[in-house]
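Hey, quick one: can you model this chain's 3D structure?
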Amino acid sequence: MDQNKEDKGIDFSERAKGPLAHFFISGWNHLVRLMAVNALFLLFNIPAIAIAFFYGDVFLPGLVNAFDLRKFITVNVSEGMITAVNETQLSFQLVSLLFVFFIVSMVASLLICVGPFQAGFAQVYKDIRNGTSVSLFSSFKTGLKENWKKSLVAMFIGMIFSAIIILAVDFYMNLGSDIGIVIATIFTVLYIAFILVQNFVYNLMVSTDLKLGKIYKNAILFILLRFGPCLTLGIVVALFYIVIPFVLLMSASYTTLGIFVFLYSFVVIAWVQYGLAFYTGQLVDKYVAIDEEASLENTEES
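Sure thing. Here's the predicted structure for all 302 residues.
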């Protein structure tokens, strides 16, 4: 990107009347870059997709039974065609779509991802928000190089905790009792909250020099301090990472499958992650920056 284009993007952001306008203007001003990030995210996370497939093989059968997902599945075929479709083949196709749904939900939410690569993408989002982005790959390289150690640990934390939470939801939902449903609901809420935490963590990595333990502490505190906005973010995350892909895939029509492929290959993942990164940047500016200034003042006084 040349300097004129970069300045133009900054001017648009500066003219934004509020955070929401700033978010959409900056995102629209870098639309092609966000689409490229979305495609690269899927490409670079092929190892994570393989791990998510393994998770699906282990946990998905129990989740299907627990939530009775079969009742939500509709197949848009005519009566004349249904007789020509082998029932076993149809079941295999539906199971395959469930696997796609599960994998996309796990990987896009960063519960299972290649940590160092995600640190690179977080740097891209940060630079877009700040209006300092010059090159996608330059920003990506900076984020990866400076945070690969922390991001590797965060990657394993995400895989371990997500497995524990999904196993708990699976177990308690299949108990078939009221108390089991209540406990499973609590773990489902924790599942959504942990998605926010993981996204906050990767964005805090590229925005601060804090150790990983303090990064996770701040990520959790963000949810507690800003519970209302984070609740809204949690609903948005659940909508775009769980509800919408499930509806599109389980409709099992060529139209909805085409919409799904386009949206989640080029649009949705990057925009949701950028939205979470944008909000994290605001929280860092409001809370973490104050903490760092207070720390510097204490050092000078001593």
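One thing worth noting: The first helix runs from residue 3 to 15.
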